[in-house]
Amino acid sequence: MSVISASDAVKIYESGDKTLRALDGVSVSVDSGEFAAVVGPSGSGKSTLLNLLGLLDDPSEGSVTVDGTSLSTLSKRERTDLRRETVGFIFQSFYLVPTLTARENVAVPGLVRDDRETLLDRADELLTRVGLGDRLDHYPNELSGGQKQRVAIARSMINGPDILLADEPTGNLDQDTGAQVLDVFDAFTEEGVAILTVTHDEQVTAFAERTIRLVDGEIRNDR
């Protein structure tokens, strides 16, 4: 079952008298439990596609659908709620709050709707699942790069999303640590979570079930 999809998506940016067509009629979907990698040269539209599928931006033309709901039918508030409940984000730079412990960092996205103790219990469970059960009260500056990324992955799962969108999730990691992160992703896809990652890392594309190649805003290959 398709969790998220774009149909004939076009994204145009205007700057003065210049027009940039970042995406040019892209159609792509990601199924439950699938791990897909988006590759392509810089400026090919990878991040733009990630932003559209993450409900952070609107297509200029075409449509984006999440869990059967078209983005165009939603109000701004409804879109925010759907994004929080359905989509988890993972970034290359981690974006952990330096003054919060690992468990507090993981809990942050859920604070708007759940009580603190329930969230911290869930954060502990997720951190244990990603192999950091002994690092719950450590601060980011006490963690290695791989540990920070696993905290970020646990944080992305705190609201029980159906899809994870990852932007260069292994970009700052060595090969062995990157393999550990991919093992964590594998465990989540086995539970039905869809994962779409933008990457330049051959280790990630070798691991992915599917590779989508973007060039000049168009899909050139999807296999």
Q: How is this structure best described in words?
A:
The protein is an alpha/beta fold and 223 residues long. It has a single domain (2-222), classed as Rossmann fold, CATH 3.40.50.300. 32% of the residues lie in helices and 30% in strands. The protein has a six-stranded mixed β-sheet with strand order 6-7-8-3-9-10, with helices on both faces. It has a four-stranded antiparallel β-sheet with strand order 2-1-4-5, covered by helices on one side. Helix 4 crosses helix 5 and helix 5 (145-156) runs parallel beside helix 6. The chain is globular. The model has no long low-confidence stretch (mean pLDDT 92).
Radius of gyration, in Å, reads 17 Å
Question: Termini distance?
Answer: 18 Å
By CATH reckoning, the class would read: Alpha Beta
The CATH architecture name reads: 3-Layer(aba) Sandwich
β-strand percent reads 25-35%
Assign the CATH topology: Rossmann fold
SSE sequence, one letter per element: EEEHEEHEHHHEHEHEE
**Share of residues in helices:** 25-40%
Question: How many runs of DSSP E, i.e. beta strands?
Answer: 10
Q: What sort of overall outline do the alpha carbons produce when their principal axes are compared?
A: globular
Count of helices? 7
State the strand order across the main sheet.
6-7-8-3-9-10
Mean pLDDT: 92
Determine the CATH superfamily. Answer: P-loop containing nucleotide triphosphate hydrolases
Number of domains: 1
